[in-house]
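Researcher: Please predict.
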Amino acid sequence: MAGVFHLSEMLSLALHSMVYIATADDDYVNVKQIAASTGASEAHLSKVLQRLAKGRLIHSVRGPRGGFALALPPEEISFLDIYEIIEGPIYIEGCPNHRKTCPFSSCIFKGIPEKMNSQFLEYLQENRLSDFVGNRKDVITDHQAI
């Protein structure tokens, strides 16, 4: 059964990648490291990271010691900043069907979608990358020695 709440894969990768970069011990983190941790394809992850770089939340350095690093301190980057770069601005509308008038005398959803959207927006606004520093556990992959 499908869940009610859905995040796009791109947004999920963006949020997880940003936390990974914020918690990295190295100055720069490469795509292979993030892909191994998130289980994402390197090609798809590269597109996500390019968007984040274009949005000026991270910057990249090419070369063997290159990779991605935060462009701002983690306490200055909210989850909402990341969300809006990937998905665009959030608009909370009352009707999930985007209708100006309802065919019923009262909404059959009783405002639940609007409440859920407002609660999620509040979560995105209140949470910053710095809130998750120290929260990452290292994942041993097949490529790493134990």
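Model: The longest helix spans residues 9-23.
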